[in-house]
Amino acid sequence: MADRMHSSEILEGTTADPVLAIECLKGSSKADEWSSDMLQTGDIVEELKIGNSLFVESPFKNGKNGVQKLLHSSFKRKETSIQVRVRRGRDEFVELQACVVPGELAGKKQYILRSIDDPNYAVGFVDRTEGDCLALQGSRSSRVVCALSRAQLQDGYVSYPWGRKMQELLPVPNSSCFLSMLLLPKASDQIASHYNDLEDTLARANTWLNASQASGVPILFMNIQTESLLTKISGETASSTVNAGSLSDLSNLTNASLYGFEDYHGVDIGAVRAVRLWYAPLGGEFAVEIKLKEGDSKLGFTISRTEEGFIYISSVIDDDENDFASTRSGLKDLYKEAVKASKLLVVSRVSNQKVLPWIVSSTGAVRCFDTVSLSQNLSLHRHALRPILIHVLMWDHALASQSGSIAKFRAVSQLPVPLPAEIQLRHHPNESQVLPLPDEVQFPNESGVRGDGPELKLQRDTAGELSFRFHDFSLSDNWV
Questions:
Q1: Closest to 347 (Cα-Cα) out of 297, 389, 318
Q2: How much is the pLDDT for 400?
Q3: Where are the beta strands (DSSP E) in 27-183?
Q4: Preceding amide of 59 cis, omega within 30
Q5: How wide is the angle at C-alpha 201 spanned by C-alphas 197 and 205, nearest 5°?
Q6: How do residues 380-391 score in pLDDT, each as one tens digit?
């Protein structure tokens, strides 16, 4: 209502004579094309000053066509600087400093003006009556709303230096610090045609995380999600799952681990719903470089594996008289700090390759790395005198920073699940070393000194074809 009243006041006493008016062609990148100091559609041109010699005033001979001829002549003389003075209403004037450039207006090649301050802002000339111009000026707020409704955000692409960024900004170059475990639903029969429901898979994921924390693995929960894995199904399973098409049947799929459908070839396809558990180390990952020397007969530590599939340093030689690689690298001190904090010194990477458990099969076996092959790898490094780079999971980010860690990952502070009494680390008052007392410990058989203790026995593990477990040995007699 206010716009119409203001417009009617402006139109009083106007004429139908043609005038030269402004037509906005392209908006400002500064988002102020509707401000009072910018030219707007409907502004009446009063004066044009082209270069340093040509000055013309309203009324313009032949209107827009006459001005276009002037702009063409000036452009050929390479005089492209122009100053435009426009009128709004009766007594409001605005000026624009611009340059003359070829462009298009109403589908025809003509000369337009591009702002000096903002090259993205462009205007052209058009013939209108004074009454039309004042009507446009009076309805400016409604035109802004209309322009806003038509405005669309534009997208685009920008190149990104992935190679350099992944080398410079990741704690481990070209490798993420995101850790996860994928748990497949447990098959309820031998042919894997039926699976336990989603709640069972979630419960097993929760159990694995709690058990890992209770054993001393310094990790915390981050997130959990379901993942659908496609598989072929047939027979009774197909008929009972593919035909579940009604809304009442679909509601029953919420907790289902297997559901099916037909593709356009009529093949019965099943989707097995797995669970991915995301977790993170409490204090990030810490890089330890073990440099080897001629004469190193052993590395000075043992490695074992938890029931949940984590590789960890289970013992380190505490001997200051001999120069062991574990002592030179600081691994001995780091191990002592882990024991003091009731945490396991878990190995997360060897030569930048993750050695963490990554999947639980439909039979319930944890797929993880084999301590035998890992010990052989470490032994080859020792014989070749090649430095060994390992990463361990930290429980205290401040401790890692004080030790010169390259880790940049910051985890949210959170207390882990307390250790059960039966697996708490126990201190012996008459001894200078604190030793963990697990029920079963695993360690490599290749890259260490063979002691005089009982003979090692190898047994196949259910986690994989190349996994073994060691039984009946004494920790103090077997070292890497």
A1: 389
A2: 66
A3: 44-50, 54-57, 81-88, 92-105, 108-115, 122-129, 179-183
A4: yes
A5: 165
A6: 888 888 999 999
63/221 Cα distance (integer angstroms):
74
Give tens-digit pLDDT for 38-84.
Answer: 788 888 999 999 988 889 988 888 898 999 999 999 999 888 899 99
Residue bearing tokens 């639980």 = 360
Alpha helices in 48-129 (DSSP H): 63-76
For the chain, the structural domain boundaries read 2-150, 177-280, 281-477
Instruction: Tell me 254's DSSP state.
Output: G
- State how far the Cα of 84 lies from the Cα of 184, in Å rounded to an integer: 72
Q: Nearest to residue 291, comparing CAs of 406, 386, 405?
A: 386
State how far the Cα of 312 lies from the Cα of 339, in Å rounded to an integer: 12
Which single residue is written with the structure tokens 């009946």?
472
* 344-369 mean pLDDT: 93
Q: What is the pTM assigned to this prediction?
A: 0.57
Assigned CATH topology for domain 281-477: Pdz3 Domain (2.30.42)
Band of pLDDT at residue 228, cut at 50, 70 and 90: confident
